[in-house]
Amino acid sequence: MENKIRSHSHGPNPSASDLESATNSHYNLLGSHLGSHEKAKEAIFYSYNKHINGFSAVLEVEEAANIAKHPNVVSVFVNKGHELQTTRSWEFLGLENNNGVVLKDSIWEKARYGEGTIIANIDTGVWPESKSFSDHGMGPVPSRWRGICQLHNFHCNRKLIGARFYSKGYESKFGRLNQSEYTARDVLGHGTPTLSIAGGNFVPGANVFGFGNGTAKGGSPRSHVAAYKVCWLGTIQIECTDADIMKAFEDAISDGVNVISCSLGKTTPPEFFEDGISIGSFHAIQNGVIVVASGGNSGPKLGTVTNVAPWLFSVGASTIDRKFVNYIQLGGDNKHIMGVSLSTGLPSDKFYSLISSVDAKLGNATIDDAQICMVGTIDPNKVKGKILFCLLRDINGLYYAEEEAVSGGAIGLILGNDKQRGNDIIAYPHLLPTSHINYIDANYVHSYIKATKTPVAYMSKAKTEVGAKPSPVIASLSSRGPNPIQSIILKPDISAPGVDILYAFIGAISPTGLASDNRRIPYYIGSGTSVSCPHVSAIVALLKTLYPHWSPAAFKSAVMTTAKILDTNERPIRDQSNKEDATPFGYGAGHIQPELAMDPGLIYDLNTIDYLNFLSCSRGYNQTNMKIFSKRPHTCPKSYNMLDFNYPSITVPNLGKLHSVQIVTRTVTNVGSPSTYHVHVKTPYGISVLVKPSSLTFNQVGEKKTFKVVLKVTKPTLGYVFGHLWWFDGRHKVMSPLVVKHS
């Protein structure tokens, strides 16, 4: 399946005849290559006739190659798949006090809880019966709403005002769905959680087997929400294709949404003109719609961040100050090993026999497979009634290790991380008493088992602990920079709560997804950039209510420049993977602070022309590529310097050798009261930084001032070095990361 994409010549509000004309032009173009108008109609399953100008069609490789040569075709690319990236958060972020009381000056109160804004979620659909989507207390549907509710085993209301599903891209690759599957209903358990975090109502009494904060809370609870289902269960994994994603973006823009939340992404980001999310989101921001996307779950390895286009708001994941912990004690040992879990305790308050998976393996199982408790490797006769110890290498190991433990009759399970997983431990609603421990503690348990003739262990019941320090910490799972496509743009942009977050769940599957798990729960706890992304979507929706005329870039700047880089101990935010200080490659500009984002003082603004200059100059896109993003011809200005791209962060990936100098220019816009700002700099190691001028005075809202940052190498070093620059007027601290690499 191929996609042919460019931009339309008609305006942002096309008539019915404009849409029909655009679609017919697609039929005519393809028909000229396939031999008839009718064959083209059969091949094309999406005609993008509103904002994106192109179509998706089922073609042979030779047909796609031939049509790519047509002078009016600017791009042909394969319909690739994207992956899914998956409430004390709001209290932790300062929207309410420790007793759950909303403060009168909170962004919730000032922004009327997001009243009047519309949040779209491009994901796996939604479970409409969830109490998080009740329309109790909701106002009328905004008059600008032009969307629909596809009523296939589904219903909408004044909260959940729209729902659509898109399957043609999926079906072109994987075959037809069953008739019963044609619905926007979420049966995979990803879209419901993400949408409930962004715009779900407050639901008292929500918890997971007694864990949680007692009330599920969406970040923008008076916003209206709409679900755009683009993901389906494939033969191996969940599939979300470019063709379906672009169609969802196009409809969401036309439907009148304000914010699009997209917790999807590719493990390896492609060039922007070959990526459905990049293309769709570009057309969204052209129409004033803010797009927030997950930064990926491939951390802690560097250079793994995804959704890296500068017009996208990319989000990393961090912890909050709540943990779900239990403790392990080994026989003859006074040491208590802390793990995490959402499971019950052992049946009796006593020590139980402890066995490693290698010692419990079946005769025909390999040691490597048995270490991780791969399905079919454990001998039930050896583990029955005992606590089983398994090594955990990846997230999938949670499932098959538990399946083996349950089927083998184990009384409990200890999951110990391998070296690569390190400190990344996950609270999970296990079917049997379980504790997930980090790599160092796993080594300790493994050594104890090997050195002890009859090893035994005790495991406490899991409990909720609040006030954990330090917090936030950048989650190991969260993908890291630098940006693999364009290193001069720092990604992720921001970090937000993404570990052990309470959210709405679905009634179609169990919390573990295992065949032996018959439980159904309305709320669940999970982790990942999939859940950090909608936190930012919610905050942006609140800001949109406060500042309806701001540009998408202004909202991003307000959030980024007011972020914090210190934890609750007033020390630099740490990295969960190595317990060292995190860097902007993990947290971007820092950890989100909604209350400060309401009043940023100054913003770094960008518009469509700036993004087009970025594509034509920085990426070197030719006129053919540029037509995907702009209906008018666009070429790189002769005087353009990519370092001067007015991004809220400053990255210089090739500063040069000793005494080399680079000059970066930025322009800030005043959005606060008249004031004078003075510059402060924490210089990166081996770099001198001079800012000219050192003070900026603003007399009115909307006034712009330009400054230059002169960076010079004073002591060459390997790799990236980090610092910060901030403007301060006694009230507003407008901060930007400085990320520099010598040649």
Automatic annotation (TrEMBL):
Subcellular location: Secreted, Extracellular space, Apoplast
One of the protein's GO biological processes: response to symbiotic fungus
Pfam families per UniProt: fn3_6, Inhibitor_I9, Peptidase_S8
Region: Disordered, residue numbers: 1-21
Peptidase S8/S53 domain span: 114-590
Biased composition (Polar residues): 10-21
Keywords in alphabetical order: Apoplast, Glycoprotein, Hydrolase, Protease, Secreted, Serine protease, Signal
Domain of life the protein comes from: Eukaryota
Domain (Inhibitor I9) ranges: 17-81
Active site (record annotation): D123, H190, S530
Domain Subtilisin-like protease fibronectin type-III: 644-740
Gene Ontology molecular function terms on file: serine-type endopeptidase activity
Coiled-coil zones: none
CC per GO annotation: apoplast
InterPro entries named among the record's database cross-references: Peptidase_S8/S53_dom (IPR000209), Peptidase_S8/S53_dom_sf (IPR036852), Peptidase_S8_Ser-AS (IPR023828), Peptidase_S8_subtilisin-rel (IPR015500), Peptidases_S8_3 (IPR034197), S8pro/Inhibitor_I9 (IPR010259), S8pro/Inhibitor_I9_sf (IPR037045), SBT (IPR045051)
Family membership noted in the UniProt record: Belongs to the peptidase S8 family.
Function: Required for arbuscular mycorrhiza (AM) development during AM symbiosis with AM fungi (e.g. Glomeromycota intraradices).
Protein name (record): Subtilase
Species name: Cicer arietinum (Chickpea)
